[in-house]
Amino acid sequence: MNLFSRAAGPLALLLPFALVATPLPAQEAPVSAVPAPRYLQTGDQTPWIYRGSDVPRDKEWLFGELPNGVRYAVRHNGVPPDQVSIRVRIDAGSLYETDAEQGYAHLLEHMTFRQSKYLGDGEAIPKFQSLGATFGSDTNAQTTPTQTVYELDVPNADNGKIAEVMKLLSGMIQEPTLSAKGLSEDLPIVLAEKRERGSQAERVSQATRETLFHGQPLANRLPIGTEKTLNAATPASMRAFHNRWYRPENTVVVIAGDADPQMLAGLVEQWFGNWKGKGPKVPAPSFGEPVAPAGASPDRPVGETRVLVEPDLPRTLTYAVLRPWHQVNDTIVYNQGILLDAVAQAIINRRLEARARAGGSYLYAQVQDDKPSRSADATFVSFAPLTEDWQTALTDVRSVIADALAEPPTQEEIDREAAELDVAFASQVEQRSVLAGSKLADDVVNAVDIREAVAAPETVLHVFRTMKDQLTPANVLEHTRALFKGRVERGIYLTPKEGEATAEALRDALLKPVQADSSSRLAAKTISFSELPPVGKPGTVTAQAPIGVLDIEKVSFANSVNALMWANDAEPGRVTVKVRFGSGYRAFDAKDAVYASLGQKALVPSGVGPLDIEDLDRISNGRKMGFDFKIDDAVFTFTAQTREADLADQLYLFAAKLANPRWDANPVKRAIAADKLAYETYSTSPEGVLQRDLAYYQRNKDARFATPTPAQLDAATPEGFRKAWEPLLKQGPVEILIFGDYDKAKAIEALTRTFGALPAREAIPAAALARTEDFPPSSQPTTVLHHRGDADQAAAVISWSTGGGVANLPESRQLQILANLFNNRLLDEMRERTGASYSPQVVSDWPEDLNQGGTITALGQLKPGDVPTFFAAADKIVHDLQTTPASAEELERVTEPLKQMITRASTGNTFWLWQLEGATTDPRRIAMLRSLLTDYSRTTPQAMQALARKYFGAEPGWKLAVIPDGQKLATRKGGADDDGNVASR
Known about the structure:
Elements: E1 62-65, E2 71-76, E3 84-90, H1 104-114, H2 124-130, E4 139-143, E5 148-154, H3 159-174, H4 180-197, H5 200-212, H6 227-231, H7 235-245, E6 251-257, H8 261-272, E7 302-309, E8 316-323, H9 332-357, E9 362-370, E10 377-385, H10 390-406, H11 411-430, H12 437-450, H13 457-465, H14 473-483, E11 488-495, H15 503-511, E12 541-546, E13 553-557, E14 562-567, E15 575-581, H16 593-602, H17 613-619, E16 628-631, E17 636-642, H18 644-659, H19 666-679, H20 686-698, H21 710-715, H22 718-725, E18 735-740, H23 744-753, H24 766-770, E19 782-787, E20 794-801, H25 809-833, E21 841-845, E22 855-862, H26 867-883, H27 888-905, H28 909-916, H29 924-928, H30 932-937, H31 941-952, E23 958-964, E24 980-982
Parallel strand pairs: 2-6, 7-11, 14-18, 19-23, 19-24
Antiparallel strand pairs: 1-2, 3-5, 3-6, 4-5, 8-10, 8-11, 9-10, 12-13, 13-14, 15-17, 15-18, 16-17, 20-22, 20-23, 21-22
């Protein structure tokens, strides 16, 4: 059973009538009578997924198996309302390919969407969009080494729509056209995807697989394939692969959604029941087993080792202890063993982290047990040495592990990790009624892939709580030792420096005996919130009143702190807390900009009052608490997912961080080290350069948005960090939003003792309020940056300035429609027509806390020679958007998915929290809710044309290109050249 992958769940539709565009009368698509299912496994029949298992059935699922071998699982689920999530899993991925077929499983996935029995050439995506499904999020597919999964989340799903989708999917899976024309159109797209993946990081990933899985197909059988095999594909060879593996016996259909499960089962049987495989059934290939090389020591069977030099990547070292993967019976005893393994790993990882926090020889280290692609049962150890002295770092990591292998952990350590698991499993039980249908469907697909069963959250919690007597030091020691026993041990070291290590030296280091180091064992220590100092004198409530939306109230305190509170039971056991304060990026000037970047990593770990980071871990142990920190354009935020039992303490931590921050030095030093190690990695690909530099250049080289250089990081100090951040925690109004399942009266009382007790806030300095986010002159030549990655990789960006602020929110929502129109056309041109870019995208950004700074940005990864083509395509699209009104059909492809996305999102508390944050200081945000759905889902061709003229016609787009080192920006054929304004950082 799947123990660690449960999460979200069903909510009632809470969108009030006043906020929704008046709906048209429901026009359910006509549907012929669906036959009653004949092959459900009911009564004493053991459902196919539970064969060989004693795990209690999750009775909300209905299972069936057809005579032709198709298996299915269906269930009713109302989260979000009116959505049905469909998954069709084929038991074939890249490990099922022959050497000559590498990449075929993934290429076939693309061709399946191209044309099929009920869908003409290129009709699939537009058809699903017209049904309200967003391409990429609601409509997708994925190919892994072991499976190909087709995924479709159907919004606003009446019976007729579900029947139509099942018909279309059955035609795609059973009878794709696989024509020469389709192959010629899809092959460039797949090759573009392969090109975009190629980089130093991809080479490292491939070298790691080749080393750790030496001698097995997983070592070199990537889903993306090779250029040679892909270019050799023919319609006949693709058809042969399809006939061999796309068979009823290899197919599982999973459906979870807001529909009658009997009807869903009937549809599966109707559309998949008559499918017959072509040719004889072929057994699945062997994935091999890890084997130690001849002469390896029986005690320490260290096998293949490798040193890889990549000058722009930081040092990392990974070694693995590998055992054969075997099919198991997914029993309760087996799962109890998995839980003991999890506790053993967690104890080691906590010790490794404690040593890193204290200033060790490595930045991070982690142990993880996994069964990758049914090819091995492996324990992986990964860490990042801080210096070129990798031997010391390896010794330090192995010494911590040696201690865990030599002596049992304390019961206190075991109980600490058990408490973390217990609260996680209990939360899943509390929230099972709000578990999303898409997640439920994915869980079954994952269980099928790993050859295990599925279990209800109550079963998982019961299994764990009834095994508490097994969580003893002796048992955990036994499982720890088992994790580090294997048939072969292999390792790979990545370094930026030639000559720093050899494969032989790495092998010798892995074989070298180490002394057990118990210094990182965490001594028993009890910390209680009751022992912590108060935030201040409890405050008083000065006003409490509804805001006019749902049952949300605004609560004001005498110290000018305000809260928006919505107590409801739509998401049982879940409370979201968000705190907004200060002035965000506006708070920093150029000289302190480095501390903005470091703050996102080090501000929370630097501690709260008497609590350092280790104490924060301890005090939240067995609790559902969080402490996420983020810097936005004009505000800082703390965010947490918690529960009613922990809400008061969660509020204390947030408030105490403002009132009584701690300034430990080690978290700052660690953040500096991490940023320095990561800096050069940005240069390894166009995507990395954009991640590092796009915000900086798009804001006209504003230092606040620059990624700190190693020199700037070297100059940063813990003292400078405190000097920059200490005043910022005292400035600006504070707004708290608490949305979820809690007692409002108790929460208000907790607020009086925490945020209501804060001292008066200082005003945000005028200099901060005056800082703007400037857009670069669009008349300037194309900005050209360079990367040190593969010579056939480049990226192109074109951007237009829009706006910001609350006053024009309705227009910003219409801009999202325009951006999506742009996106669809760019995707059609650059991916479908030319195959120049796999995933070009257009993004609209409209900051609500600033009255400027918004952008519409188009970007794509492509070949260097196609950069001018991208710019030309974008220019033509924006010209056409201004001069020729979009058709009603094209608009519907955009507005219907947006409408469905908003309708689904509005069933969750966090949707309303996002919409209303900032409303205590700007009540216009509340009024703007009334047009929300209409703004996103209703428009006209003329309105889109007017917006295009306003924002695209006012000025040409600002352009940026990222090309390989040593190359110049290509010129546009048949037109004016783009000047190469080369910039570097």
